[in-house]
Amino acid sequence: MKKYLLEICCAHIASVHAAKKAGADRTELCDNLWEGGTTPSIGFIKKAVATGIDCFVLIRPRGGNFIYTNSEFDVMLEDIHWAKEMGAKGIVSGALLANGEIDIEKTLKLIEAADPLPFTFHRAFDLCVDPFSGLQDLIYCGVTTILSSGQANSALEGLACIQQLEEKAAGQIQIMPGGGINQNNIQEFLHKTECSAFHLSAKTWVAQSKNPQKPPMNGSTSIPEDGIYQSSSEEIQKIKNILNQYEI
């Protein structure tokens, strides 16, 4: 029987509790989803691990590109050390060169720092200049999993690329679709790919205040401050139920 893995991207402890309640297999812990995710705090990691659900930790020192200075890279290596100390079950990270290729040297060092934990190369992969050359580079590096939207705005839009990546991977590395996956489209991936792991946030808006900060704390009006986005246990449960049906 084929088993499916459901990973929930969590930027709040409430999302971790929702993921655990709904029976998700693991979480990817991060901060600052508005920037595509950055490294979470030690306190968050510690409390998330204490819930009992497996926690992979995103290691990304800032938003923006994935081309890191030596000083930034030193921070990443230190963050991996502390994520492991706090009980992380896996590391999610990656680095690119200015020409858009995988930074093999830095990726190998990240994997070495993460050892013996599994290593997911995150969606920096979707910015590499050639996904199929990048795939071979990551197989060479010994990456466990590639998280990808198929180099598109969403995994559904990038489905054809994901299919090709999976075919060329030939079981040497796991391809995990991520980016806009929900209960309404996950069956598309189940029907058209052999992917066995899926990444999503299942986020919903939770209003918390009727008196948002004025002026905005973030210096713009693009991010509302009268609530937060957090994972919905109901949405996760619905997706988990769909996956369970395909496991029978």
Largest sheet: 8 strands, parallel
Structural class, from helix and strand content?
Answer: alpha/beta
Overall average pLDDT: 93
Number of structural units classed as domains = 1
Blueprint of the fold:
Elements: E1 5-10, H1 13-22, E2 26-29, H2 42-50, E3 54-58, H3 70-85, E4 90-93, H4 104-114, E5 119-121, H5 131-141, E6 145-148, H6 159-169, E7 174-177, H7 186-192, E8 197-200, E9 203-207, E10 227-231, H8 233-247
Parallel strand pairs: 1-2, 1-8, 2-3, 3-4, 4-5, 5-6, 6-7
Antiparallel strand pairs: 9-10
Helix pairs in contact: 1-8, 3-4
3D architecture notes:
The chain has helices at 13-22, 42-50, 70-85, 104-114, 131-141, 159-169, 186-192, 233-247, and strands at residues 5-10, 26-29, 54-58, 90-93, 119-121, 145-148, 174-177, 197-200, 203-207, 227-231. With 248 residues, it is α/β, with parallel strands linked by helices. The protein has one domain (5-247): Copper homeostasis (CutC) domain (TIM Barrel). Strand 1, helix 1 and strand 2 form a beta-alpha-beta unit.
What are the defining features of this structure?
TIM Barrel; 248 residues; alpha/beta; two-stranded antiparallel ribbon; 10 strands; 18% strand; 8-stranded parallel sheet
Short description:
This protein is an alpha/beta fold. Helix content is 36%, strand content 18%. It has one domain: TIM Barrel (Alpha-Beta Barrel).
